Amino acid sequence: MRRTWGVTAVLLTAVLLAGCTGSSNSVSTDSSGSSSGGVVPAEGDRVAEGSRVTGTTSDVNTANRDVVTTGSLSITATDPVAASESAVTITEQAGGRVDSRSENPATGIQPASANLSLRIPSDELDRTLAELKTLGRLNFVTLTAQDVTQQSQDLDARITALTTSVDRLLALMASATSTTDLISIESALSSRQGERESLQSQRDLLADQIDYSTVQLELVAEGTVAPGGPDNFWSGIVTGWTALVTALGGLLVALGVALPWLVVLAILGAIVSLIVRVFARRRKAA
After folding, report:
1. Cβ neighbours of residue 47 under 8 Å, at least 6 residues apart?
2. Are 115 and 219 in contact (CB under 8 A)?
3. pTM assigned to the model
4. Contact 137, 120 (CB under 8 A)
5. Which of 8, 197, 221, 276 is the most buried (most CB within 10 A)?
6. Is residue 110 classed as helix, strand or coil in its secondary structure?
7. Residue 231 lies in a domain
């Protein structure tokens, strides 16, 4: 009985030490020295004061920082489907991959288009974007960079603490002498191993997002994206006239759609009016 209590006390001590280790590793300081609840970064890993993410990779100093970059790109191409093939080749040559891809050939009622989700190595992003822009006329491009240094460091610290706790529990299991102790240790060990695997999956996903930027590429046919606004008096008149004709055309289409309904409603209204008149005449006669 004393031996059982002794092993149990050692087990509780190991669990408490693991908890202390996890809590001590989850405290960090920002550039001003105040506690921010993350992991204490190494002296060379601290972000320089005043640095910020501006949304473009060329303006972001990513040295000693973990940055997740996402963006979108719209290009007008003569043949969007052929341009999609070229975009895949450009991405793969840069060491990236295509997570999703959809192509819509031209039909009688819709122009051709293509949409791709590209994963591009972060260190090849600027060069790859420059090549993608040569596929046609650039409509717009947006990039967003998010600093996740603290998040990745926090995950690393928690994984390290759980690994230490698992090793201690394995050592206790090897020296356990009773079934009760083994069951208690195995339960605690299973819980910590499951938590560590979950955190490791999160860390792997975050590392993939850091290493590969995600870019949504849209390829459209000529005439799909409206041109810029008028820049002089005559082009303004032409634009206004075109808008007027378009509006009148839309009004005629709406009138054509509503006309059958209006006819039916007029007939129903006439029938109801006739019935009302008949009843009114019968009341007067009575």
Report:
1. 31, 64, 65, 147, 149
2. yes
3. 0.55
4. no
5. 221
6. coil
7. no
